[in-house]
């Protein structure tokens, strides 16, 4: 028998008064509550529902809400209520039925006594709320969605929180000085949460501009001191934008923003949008900044022409050394870059040397932040270091203890695909991904297949936008440009003939003839840059390191090159042998 109860009442002074007279716990007991009108929803926790409802009734921002649901439990304390509040906000944001009105600064992830026991109750509360129409999907379905993964309602870890707080405190000060221009950078390996930090900052800036003084700010929130009356004005008319170079990720984040009232009209932009905007920006956040491009032949000829036109207009010169980062800094007073130069995968991407100078500038100004904590891969930093070394000339000598994280090498592609299907049935978000080692022969419905190995015939991703969630994705293979920036539960990585191990030297080599991303190996004739075999090897190994770090629960590998396959197989065999001894 459940110990919790859910009380229903109208969001009116009369209903609040009647409930206070009927239920003593309404005035003096820790509870979690939901305010909604069928479209918008607000989740809160309080030690006095009576007092809090009367405060909310005075709020202009919540005046349109109509119904209240209050969760009572005799075992609740303040920590449990904060935890349940955070969980419901995150799940409501990821489900998408309601538009969540909460600020994101109060999301917590603190441990407390008997938390695991409360978690069981929270799941029961979720299911009861779901039966009453508050959720359309199960918890696993929500957690696998882009709405959840890219939501601003995240509990930041300590290093993420410190970076956000430092950046926001700097902005509070800098915005009072119109002539000040700043550059900040957040650097981190795959899975350290750079994108989440960027999204969180966008929401936090909007929350500061619009916060309701009648809303209590949690005293133990890292950002509570920001929410004071004097900080509203500088942020209220702030012109801000989030730049995402990749089309697929940009459209996914745009969909998420449309579900968040504070971000509904937030600008998710291309670098071209920033350059062509009618007005300059106060703040630009650039996610995946390592994918900004330099001058050269762009993805489409029209963009190549547009590139030159923008450069001439902004700098009165057709200087080929000017890149998209220069555009953004020209059009923005305060620029924040989120980057990992080891994820640059094409010659057209801005050179690593440019970002080295940028990082040095940010460090000199004490605006450089490093994210180290692995938030994606359950194998943690041990797996990340293993994956990085696996595709290098300094390979690991053994497979580390990865706990519950699954790493497996397959001799047969069909068997790996079947394992991916099985994991997808169990957990969802299991997909095949590969390097650009096969031509896109299926394009245009030719009837030809792209990847044919071990009697298996597979095609590249049909969709280049939101491919992971598309109906056909389980039977297709995703490329780097489709999956970079996204999380999977399981990734089946096909390492093709573009990457070989020289059996004589024991070193990795790039096979140019078996690499079919034309833009990935082209020379930049405009700037007189030649893509050498060494350059190509760096791009290809970067591609595979990105692919090898997409899987949160596990990574499966199939290698086309026999020598590389045997090198990895020895690691796996040695680990298996040591476990059975």
Automatic annotation (TrEMBL):
InterPro entries: GIY-YIG_endonuc, P-loop_NTPase, SLFN_3-like_DNA/RNA_helicase. It comes from the Bacteria. Residues 28-100 form the GIY-YIG domain. Coiled coil: none annotated. It holds the Pfam family SLFN-g3_helicase. Gene3D superfamilies: P-loop containing nucleotide triphosphate hydrolases. This is ATPase AAA. It comes from Brachybacterium muris UCD-AY4.
């Amino acid at each position: 028998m459940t110990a919790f109860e859910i009380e229903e009442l109208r969001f009116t002074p009369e209903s609040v008064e009647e409930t206070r007279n009927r239920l003593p716990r309404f005035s003096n007991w820790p509870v979690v509550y939901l305010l909604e009108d069928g479209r918008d929803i607000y989740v809160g926790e309080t030690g006095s529902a009576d007092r809090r409802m009367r405060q909310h009734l005075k709020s202009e921002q919540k005046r349109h809400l109509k119904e209240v649901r209050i969760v009572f439990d005799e075992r609740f304390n303040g920590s449990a209520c904060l935890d349940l509040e955070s969980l419901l906000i995150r799940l409501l944001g990821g489900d998408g039925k309601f538009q969540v009105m909460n600020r994101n600064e109060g999301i917590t992830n603190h441990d407390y006594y008997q938390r695991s026991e409360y978690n069981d109750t929270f799941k029961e509360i979720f299911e009861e709320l779901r039966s009453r129409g508050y959720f359309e999907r199960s918890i696993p379905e929500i957690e696998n969605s882009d709405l959840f993964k890219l939501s601003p309602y995240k509990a930041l870890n300590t290093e993420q929180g410190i970076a956000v707080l430092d950046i926001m405190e700097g902005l509070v000060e800098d915005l009072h000085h119109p002539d000040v221009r700043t550059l900040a950078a957040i650097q981190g390996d795959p899975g350290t949460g750079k994108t989440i930090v960027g999204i969180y900052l966008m929401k936090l800036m909007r929350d500061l501009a619009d916060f309701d003084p009648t809303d209590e700010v949690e005293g133990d929130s890292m950002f509570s001191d920001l929410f004071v009356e004097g900080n509203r004005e500088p942020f209220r008319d702030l012109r801000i934008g989030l730049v995402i170079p990749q089309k697929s990720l940009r459209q996914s984040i745009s969909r998420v923003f449309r579900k968040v009232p504070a971000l509904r009209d937030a600008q998710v932009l291309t670098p071209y949008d920033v350059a062509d905007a009618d007005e300059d920006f106060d703040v630009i956040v650039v996610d995946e900044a390592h994918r900004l491009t330099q001058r050269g032949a762009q993805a489409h000829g029209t963009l190549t022409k547009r590139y030159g036109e923008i450069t001439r207009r902004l700098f009165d010169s057709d200087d080929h050394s000017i890149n998209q980062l220069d555009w953004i800094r020209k059009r923005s007073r305060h620029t924040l870059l989120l980057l990992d130069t080891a994820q640059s995968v094409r010659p057209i991407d801005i050179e690593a040397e440019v970002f080295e100078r940028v990082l040095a500038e940010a460090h000199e100004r004490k605006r450089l932040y490093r994210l180290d904590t692995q938030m994606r891969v359950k194998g943690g930093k041990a797996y990340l270091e293993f994956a990085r070394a696996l595709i290098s000339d300094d390979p690991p000598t053994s497979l580390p203890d990865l706990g519950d994280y699954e790493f497996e090498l397959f001799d047969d592609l069909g068997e790996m695909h079947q394992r991916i299907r099985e994991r997808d049935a169990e957990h969802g978000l299991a997909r095949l991904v590969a390097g650009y080692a096969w031509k896109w022969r299926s394009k245009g419905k030719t009837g030809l297949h792209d990847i044919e190995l071990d009697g298996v015939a597979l095609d590249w991703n049909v969709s280049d936008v939101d491919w992971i969630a598309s109906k056909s994705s389980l039977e297709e293979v995703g490329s780097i440009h489709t999956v970079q920036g996204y999380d999977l539960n399981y990734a089946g990585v096909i390492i093709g003939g573009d990457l070989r191990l020289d059996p004589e030297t024991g070193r990795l080599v790039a096979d140019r003839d078996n690499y079919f991303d034309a833009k990935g190996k082209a020379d930049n004739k405009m700037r007189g840059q030649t893509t050498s075999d060494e350059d190509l090897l760096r791009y290809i190994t970067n591609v595979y390191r990105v692919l090898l770090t997409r899987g949160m629960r596990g990574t499966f590998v199939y290698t086309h090159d026999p020598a590389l396959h045997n090198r990895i197989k020895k690691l796996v065999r040695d680990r298996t042998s040591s476990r059975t001894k």
